[in-house]
Amino acid sequence: MFLSAFPLMAVTSCRAWLDVDSEDRILEDKLFSSTDGFYTALNGVYVDLVNRDLYSGTLGPLTADVLAQYWNTEADSHLYGSLSLLLPEAKRTAVNGLWTRAYFLILNINKIISHCDDKRGTVLNEKDYSIIKGEALALRALLHFELLRYFGPVFSVSAGKDAIPYVTEPEPQVNPILPAMSVISKLNSDITEAIGLLEEYDPVLVYGKNETDNSGRNIYAYRNLRMNCFAVKALGARVNMYLSYLNDYRGKALAYAEEVIREASAFFPFSTREEVSGQAATGNVNVSAQDRILSSDILFAVYNIKRGADIYEYLFSPSLQINRLLSVTGSGYRSIYPEESDLRTYQWTARKDVAGNDIMCFVKYEGMEVDGKSYPYMIPVLRMSEMFLIAAECYAVEGKEDLAYERLNTLRNARQTSKVTSAIEAEIENEYVREFVGEGQYFWFCKRKNYHSLSCLYDRSRPDRNISTEDYVFELPQSEGGFRE
After folding, report:
1. How many separate helices (H) and strands (E) can be counted in the chain?
2. pLDDT in tens, 12-68
3. How far apart are CA 224 and CA 267, in angstroms?
4. Are residues 223 and 316 in the same domain?
5. What's the CA gap between 442 and 428, in Å, rounded?
6. Are 72 and 326 a contacting pair, CB within 8 Å?
7. Is residue 405 one of the residues assigned to a domain?
8. Which of 317, 332, 362 is the last residue of a domain?
9. Of 228, 249, 268, which marks where a domain is finished?
């Protein structure tokens, strides 16, 4: 069943509309006979993004961050120890659910896109058609890119290598595995079309996030919980930055990033210390109301009403047994955050594990409730801060160091750390490490760069982890989730 989640519109329809027998075809036709039905179907996709095989785990705080060596997995028989060692079987197991779940949702999305075109001008007016199809195209691109990062090659080494299918049909069928560059072409095509549709009608361009509950159809509100126009452009920056060793793609990434910075900064400003500490939420500093995810500049997040249980209690709570707890040592924490003023330090606290060891516990996703606020349930997917880092890196590669430092130091100032004036490339990488803990981005930075060693972030006294180009690539599931059987 599709689930419901505040503040998305309640979802009441079954997943049966994906089936192809005559009874379910009737249900499908009924679902797409009204605008509300279209939004019900689209909301069902958003709700399913919180699955642990997607952004509550594999695409968020778990798999990629274990691979990036954030977490201490040295305990005997640690649940994620083999994955941190990049052992093939552990890698296969870690992403089996991702493949199946992502392509299932892509078929959902393709159904929506197909019916959008059929019902344009009858069931759907131009505004709803543009927003629904634009968001659907963006979600299709987002999920395919997540799959590409796991299963595709290191582009700077073998951009022509086969990667994944790019599925655009609404019915299950065998789809060819495409070369990685062909996947990028299709990604950019979907992103361009999505932007063209959303630029016409997306309320985010006028009202920003519009975090106002209308106690009904919130289809035009909470735009930071949907693939809004700014988020799609940010995705365009991320996709093209993945090929930044090529001038044309780096230029596209920079253009997208600067466009988002220019157009969206007023609507998605960086968080203040008062907001992060909880003071803005209550009028007094209140630890239980801390905005630990620094939500203000999040361009798109998925919304998980069980975030505390699904992520914190499952991965980071000090009450977990040592062989499944993910944490860092005190020295590891201090090496990541050398400045106490850094707002991102609110995402951590010193605690003891069940054996009485001192650890730094990751509390970014700890459960909390704050009246009228969405951030206790958000899992970040795309941030404004990434646009500043992409711009900084592009300028640095082009030898425009003044512009590179300006973009980098804008972010550092926002996070209340000191200005830097040297070692621009190293400082950009340091910000990736600090900024995206629990969001699964730093490992892909390393893959893009084709690093052959990964720093042991949870304890810098430990030796680096050696990694080969082949280690960055995950094997396609043998059955490919039923899509090529």
Report:
1. 19, 8
2. 333 433 444 445 566 888 999 999 999 999 999 999 999 999 999 999 999 999 999
3. 10
4. no
5. 11
6. yes
7. no
8. 362
9. 228
Rounded (10°) CA dihedral 332, 333, 338, 342: 160
Q: 112-127 pLDDT, tens per residue?
A: 999 999 999 999 999 9
Which pLDDT score is estimated for 76?
A: 93
Show the domain range for 67: 1-228
Cα separation, 482 vs 476, whole angstroms: 12
Q: Does residue 294 surpass a pLDDT of 50?
A: yes
- Give me the mean pLDDT over the 294-321 stretch: 97
Residue 211 and residue 332 share a domain: no
Q: Are residues 8 and 117 in the same domain?
A: yes
Whether residues 59 and 172 share a domain: the answer is: yes
Work out the pLDDT band at 474, boundaries 50, 70, 90: very high
How far apart CA 388 and CA 413 sit, in angstroms, is: 12
User: Is position 369 within any domain?
Assistant: no
Locate tokens 């500049």: which residue? Answer: 297
Q: Which residues of 105-135 are buried (b: 16+ CB within 10 A; e: fewer)?
A: bbbbbbbbbbbbeebbeebbeeebbbbbbbb
What's the CATH code of the domain at 46? 1.25.40.390
Is the separation of the CB atoms in 262 and 230 below 8 Å? no
Q: Positive or negative CA dihedral for 140, 48, 433, 420?
A: positive
Q: Do 196 and 104 reside in the same domain of the chain?
A: yes
Confidence of residue 480 (pLDDT cuts 50, 70, 90): low
Query: In terms of Cα–Cα distance, which of 322, 357, 364 is closest to 343?
Result: 364
Output Rg (C-alpha) for the chain, integer angstroms.
22
| 159 in the same domain as 31 | yes
Q: Are strands 162-164 and 178-179 parallel, antiparallel or unpaired?
A: antiparallel
Report the predicted TM-score, pTM, of the whole model to 2 decimal places: 0.93
Tokens 């499952």 sit on residue: 314
Amino acid, res. 244: S
pLDDT tens for residues 357-412?
A: 999 999 999 999 888 899 999 999 999 999 999 999 999 999 999 999 999 999 99
How many domains is the chain partitioned into structurally? 2
Amino acid at 394: C
Asked if residue 153 and residue 13 are part of one domain, the reply reads yes
DSSP-assigned letters across all residues of 100-164: HHHHHHHHHHHHHHHHHHHHBTTTB-HHHHHHHHHHHHHHHHHHHHHHHHHHS--HHHHTTSEEE
As a whole number of angstroms, the distance between CA 96 and CA 30 comes to 33
3-state secondary structure of 442: helix
Residue 300 lies in a domain: no
Token representation of residue 189: 């095509």
**Measured distance CA(98)–CA(58) in Å, rounded:** 7
Q: Which residues contact 230 (CB under 8 A, 6 or more apart)?
A: 204, 260, 263, 264, 267, 268, 299
Residue 27: in which H helix or E strand, if any?
helix 22-31
Rounded Cα gap, residues 295 and 379, in angstroms: 9
